[in-house]
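Fold it.
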Amino acid sequence: MGHGGGRGRGRGRGRMRGSRFISALPETTFFKPIGTEYDEDKVIFLSLEELEAVRLVDLEGLLQEEAAAEMGVSRKTLWNDLKAGRKKVAEALVNGWVIRIEGGSYMLRGIRR
C-alpha cells in the first residue's frame, strides 16, 4: 500500500492550514527498522507540527489546552495534529515502516519561516 493521500502528503480540500509554532527542528528526521529494505511505498511522513503535538502532550506531559497555547492554535487544531501524529507513528511501528519527519506549516519560535 502506497504512502499517498491520507498518510501525510497533501490535504485535499478545505481551508489552508495555519502555521503552528514549534520549539526546534528535530536532530533526526528519518527512522528505519533495522534489517528492512527501504521501500518508497512503506514510508510514513510525519509533519513537524504533528511531531510537536506528540512531543508536547505525550513526552512533556502537557494538557492539550496547554500544548495548544504553546503552539498558538486552538484545542481542536492541536487534537487533529496529535491524533494524526499518533496514528502515523503507530502505523509505522506496527507495520515496520520508515518514518520521515518533514514539511508542514510551522514557524520556529523567534524565526519566521
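The chain has one domain: 21-32+40-108.
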